[in-house]
Amino acid sequence: MSDEFIGKGFPFPMRINESGSFTLIEGIEELERSMAVVLSTAPGERPFRPAFGCRIWELMFEPIETSTMGLMEMYVQEALHMWEPRVEIDSVLVEPSDIDGAVTIQISYIVRSTNDRRNLVYPFYTIPPEED
Predict the structure, then answer these.
(1) For residue 45, how many C-alpha atoms fall within 13 Å in the half-sphere facing its CB?
(2) Which of 49, 56, 103, 132 has the highest count of CB atoms within 10 angstroms of its CB?
(3) Per-residue pLDDT tens for 35-82?
(4) Is 78 helix (H, G, I), strand (E, B) or coil?
């Protein structure tokens, strides 16, 4: 029942299996791939679904500060709430990474069909300001 609710989908990039058919992913792998697609898409990128995506891309040129990380958390929660109904977002935590211009986004979520608690870590890279 739980995999039926989660469903099946195409991986990105698409692959062909040994029988010559398209490979499909299912279960948690498909769910997390779907969440990553939402987060990696900027609104306006998809012609027939201009609202699809995550506004986090608006912050690409912003310095990594407390207020910016708070906006990132809010944008991630909004996007996943809107575009991934199979999960309930428990928490989103954005922390600076050791890599200059990068943050780590830790998403704790619950799979609605199974009540399974899971975590997804999504890296996000900003463009650091040029030094004078």
Answers:
(1) 13
(2) 56
(3) 999 999 999 999 999 999 999 999 999 989 999 999 999 999 999 999
(4) helix
CA atoms of 47 and 88, how far apart (whole Å): 27
Alpha-carbon span 121 to 108, nearest angstrom: 9
Which residues touch 60 (CB under 8 Å, ≥6 apart)?
126, 127
- DSSP assignments along 39-50, one per residue: HH--TT-STT-T
**Of 9, 37, 34, residue with least CA distance to 24:** 9
Give the residue among 119, 112, 96, 117 at the shortest CA–CA distance from 32: 119
In the block, residue with structure tokens 């199979």: 86
pLDDT tens-place string over residues 26-43:
667 778 888 999 999 999
Query: Which domains are present in the chain?
Result: 2-125 (3.10.450.40)
DSSP-derived 3-state class of residue 23: coil
H helix intervals, the chain: 2-6, 27-40, 66-83
